Task: structure prediction
Amino acid sequence: MKKALAMILALMMVLSLAACGNSDNPQNSTAGGESKAPVETQNSNEGGEVANKDKPLVWFNRQPSNSSTGELDMDAMNFNKDTYYVGFDANQGAELQGQMILDYITAHIDEIDRNGDGVIGYVLAIGDIGHNDSIARTRGVRKALDTAVEDGGAIKSDPVGINADGSATAVKDGKLTIGGKEYTVRELASQEMKNSAGATWDAATAGNTITTWVSTFGDQIDVVASNNDGMGMAMFNAWSNENKVPTFGYDANSDAVEAIANGYGGTISQHADVQAYLTLRVLRNALDGVDIDTGIGTADDAGNVLSDDVYKYVESQRSYYALNVAVTADNYKDFLDATVPYAPVSNQLSQDTHATKNVWLNIYNAADNFLSATYQPLLQKYDDILNLNVEYIGGDGQTEANITNRLGNPSQYDAFAINMVKTDNSASYTSLLEG
Result:
């Protein structure tokens, strides 16, 4: 009798398990009908798993867009209801960089023309000719220095190569009147800093290139401008520091800010502390199922909140942008450590109301100075504050596959933060989530 009863109970258990594992139940299978490991239930979907295609997604640092026209990829921006972009106001920052360089030239006009020929010559290190941020920064410098040439209503951002005689078609000789005297401004040379393996924004290439430019132009180079601090510091260390030529970058990396005391001309802080917070905060809010503005424009239960002078939200683009600040000899001491979290959003969230969630996050180029030395250290501080268990993936800066090959099981994660290699390759990532 006992043996028969045991057999009946075992049979009932088998039938119960079979019913729970039915491949017709979409909450327990992938699109292909294969079983998948369970993930932690999100507050917004009590009682079942969340499909990968519906999990919160933040694009950051490189906005999905057409690399030729700069037009936003709104399919990527609307991948699901919890998809956003986090970056910074590229145009505002670009104009600020250009103005910073112009202000420096104006203030130092008596000594900046090194050979006294009446021509203020500058060279420009371009990061990635297909990147919106690089395009904006190139345009910002040219606009401020009156060397811009427009095509179809937009300032050209093409590299000019060598422009010794001022005949390049992507720029023109500019004119500045300072102290009652007119000066010519010429972009002597500009180049995309791309190494032989294909990685852009390459500091080593910039360091080598400034040596080549100096052999061509010598004391005609009065100013060095760069789309970022990584390349700017490479040129500063290779040549311009020793020769007392002002060099200007972008990102406010700690080494560049520190170098201002030794003659580095200036840089732009894109409020990486605010960007890194927003990158993870947007995911935290979506995972908690609360209003997206929580802890951003509206204080959260721990008191975290941002003021509207450090960020803006553009609803039509589903994008959060940190605002930029010029860092010069006047204020650089306030920016010496770029990895300190922003104080107004540094309050620890409670585990009781914000349970730990798993996030997959990639850095397009592990060797990028800004991302590896500034952005990631900030993210790693904020992930503790926001109770997020983040897996950081470092790419090679050349191919999407170097990153996407390591997203083999997205079901292990509750949310994703993606930093593309190329701005027009969003589908390389979303296809993995849709599958």
In short: The two ends are 51 Å apart (CA to CA). The longest strand covers residues 181-192.
